[in-house]
Design brief:
The protein is of the alpha/beta class and 547 residues long. The chain has 13 helices and 24 strands. The chain has helices spanning 62-68, 132-143, 168-173, 175-195, 209-233, 285-288, 305-316, 336-348, 400-403, 439-454, 483-490, 503-508, 537-545, and strands spanning 30-36, 85-87, 123-128, 148-152, 237-240, 243-247, 250-253, 256-265, 269-271, 297-301, 320-324, 352-354, 359-364, 370-374, 377-382, 384-387, 391-393, 426-428, 459-461, 468-470, 476-480, 493-500, 514-521, 527-533. The strands form six sheets. Strands 3, 4, 5, 6, 7, 8 and 18 form a seven-stranded mixed β-sheet that branches. It has a six-stranded antiparallel β-sheet with strand order 1-22-23-24-21-20, sandwiched between helices. Strands 12-11-10-16 form a four-stranded parallel β-sheet, covered by helices on one side. InterPro entries: FAD/NAD-bd_sf, FAD/NAD-binding_dom, FAD/NAD-linked_Rdtase_dimer_sf, GSHR/TRXR-like, Pyr_nucl-diS_OxRdtase_dimer, Pyr_OxRdtase_I_AS.
Length: 547
């Protein structure tokens, strides 16, 4: 899943169920009310309410002197206190600050007992990885008066051991290029819809894949340039190359050593492809965003949000699409009724689901076509086989083990509630920690870290009621608890659902429908969760989450 876009005011979106437009004549609208009492078999999740966290204003020059006297390991509180602030992952606009200040490249380091002699560092903060979290933390730290450097690999649309790019996954290989391709793919459905509204075409509309790829890549180049300017305008030094930690205060970038009082790791994650026979013939989500030609027939292995989003993209661009999942339903962890509904809607658009099938091997034929062998048999004739089987933190070859940074079995860096690793001077934010892998969350974590380190204001990220979206077709928006989670946590709940045919579909003649679900605490009438699948779901849920 990727982050919800910023709220957009749209008059047609203001009415969810009771606005100015009544149900269309002939539409089948069903609203059911379910009252559940079952403390032993119920559902869970918590509230809403987030606050915007915008870029801080530049502090006075004396702030550098103030924090220079702090110990190397910031003494964070072990219990909540009045100065523990909470940040929320709501999406804020960029605030550009043109900074004019003297750079400070050395700081005084003291141990907690004051016995360590003074040390001089090249930077107050050195960030490895210029993705969403790293850029946010670095920019805010510089605005707070710290001297900051960021290292990042050279730009490429596909990441590797030697390529990356300023902007990270969301900007270069995730949210942005994916949404551009979603937009491109939706036109075929809209052409079909338009027939019922009187539009006629002399010939079948044709799509030019090379034009889409060229324009998409040009936009990515523009955006990575913007991110570089953001860092430069904040006074952050950008170093191109691969960073590796040498000791708790030293980073090696392609043979050159840099010292820093604090080191931040924000290198994100990478797609994961399981090792099966013939896996070298498969592509991942990075490659799927930059193919030289459109797939004619594609197998997508996986039932998560990435799999559904690419299935919608390729289906909309007229490819034949097959999804192979190990379970009976897609989107494990989502509300059960949402899982059922989105599967039904995607099937109606021509996507074929192969449930309870696990891939065992990929075979390449003499003509170049691919076959996928599963526990239930073999499907032949694919031009592409894509694995959307999750992502893994990008922590290999960073030198983390040698300096004592602890990681879990998947390679995710373990951090405390302030994003500090097991080494006091090393911190981590974003997907590399595998907490909540969403761009707004990484932004929140980066901003909180900058306040913790350089404003002497220990700040915990707030993970309550984080909204999320799946840009499948139809899309999904959700926030709060699923019905199942709410029962487990609250016991007695009320559930309100609506499954209806939207006004647009009455003339288009297409089988499009919308599903909405509200989960409420029966005792307090507190809204515990909102789940929606249908056109504009992401924007609608984002707006309601802000209430």
């Amino acid at each position: 899943m990727r982050q919800l876009p910023p709220p957009q005011i749209n008059s047609t979106n203001r009415c969810l169920m009771g606005g100015p437009h009544p149900p269309a004549q002939g539409s089948q609208t069903s609203i059911s009310y379910i009252y559940t009492k079952a403390r032993d078999g119920d559902r869970k999740r918590t509230n809403m309410a987030t606050t915007s966290f915008t870029a801080p204003k530049l502090s006075s020059p004396t702030l550098q002197t103030l924090y220079r006297n702090l110990p190397v390991s910031v003494p964070l509180p072990k219990t909540r206190s009045s100065f523990s602030r909470h940040l929320s992952p709501s999406i804020s606009r960029f605030h550009h600050h043109h900074l004019h200040r003297h750079r400070l490249f050395s700081v005084r380091a003291e141990s907690e007992n004051g016995a360590e002699p003074p040390r001089h560092y090249d930077f107050d903060l050195f960030t490895i990885g210029a993705g969403s979290g790293g850029v946010r933390a670095s920019r805010f730290a510089a605005n707070f008066g710290a001297s900051v450097a960021v290292c990042e690999l050279p730009f490429s649309t596909i990441s590797s051991e030697t390529t990356g790019g300023v902007g990270g996954t969301c900007v270069l290989r995730g949210c942005v290029p994916k949404k551009l391709m979603v937009y491109a793919s939706k036109y075929s459905h809209e052409f079909d819809e338009s027939n019922g509204f009187g539009w006629k075409y002399d010939a079948e509309p044709k799509h030019d894949w090379s034009t889409l790829m060229a324009n998409k890549n040009a936009e990515l180049q523009r955006l990575t340039g913007i991110y570089k300017n953001i860092l430069n305008n904040a006074g952050v030094i950008l170093i191109e190359g691969r960073g590796k930690i040498v000791d708790p205060h030293t980073v090696d970038v392609d043979g050159k050593l840099y010292t820093a009082r604090h080191i931040l790791i924000s290198v994100g994650g990478r797609p994961f492809i399981p090792e099966i026979t013939g896996s070298e013939y498969a592509i991942d989500s990075d490659a799927a965003l930059d193919l030289p030609s459109k797939p004619e027939k594609v197998a997508i292995v996986g039932g998560g949000y990435i799999a559904l989003e690419f299935a919608g993209i390729f289906n909309g661009l007229t490819s034949e699409v097959h999804i192979f999942i190990r379970q009976k339903k897609v989107l494990r962890g989502f509300d059960e009724e949402i899982r059922d509904f989105v599967g039904e809607q995607m099937s109606l658009r021509g996507i074929e689901f192969h449930t309870e099938e696990s891939p065992q091997a990929i075979v390449k034929s003499a003509d170049g076509s691919l076959s996928l062998k599963t526990n239930k048999g073999t499907v032949e004739g694919f031009s592409h086989i894509m694995f959307a089987t999750g992502r893994r933190p990008n922590t290999k070859n960073l030198g983390l083990e040698s300096v004592g940074v602890k990681m879990n079995k998947n390679g995710a860096i373990e951090v405390d509630e302030y994003s500090r690793t097991t080494v006091p001077s090393i911190w981590a934010v974003g997907d590399v920690t595998d907490r909540i892998n969403l761009t707004p969350v990484a932004l929140m974590e980066g901003g909180a870290l900058a306040k913790t380190l350089f404003q002497n204001e220990p700040t915990k990220p707030d993970y309550r009621a984080v909204p999320s979206a799946v840009f499948s077709q139809p899309p999904i928006g959700q926030v709060g608890l699923t019905e199942e989670q709410a029962i487990k946590e609250y016991g007695d709940i009320d559930v309100y659902t609506a499954n209806f045919r939207p006004l647009k579909a009455t003339l288009s003649g297409l089988p499009d429908r919308v599903f909405m679900k509200l989960v409420v605490c029966a005792e307090t009438n507190k809204v515990l969760g909102l789940h929606m699948c249908g056109e504009d779901s992401a924007e609608i849920v984002q707006d309601l989450q802000l209430l």
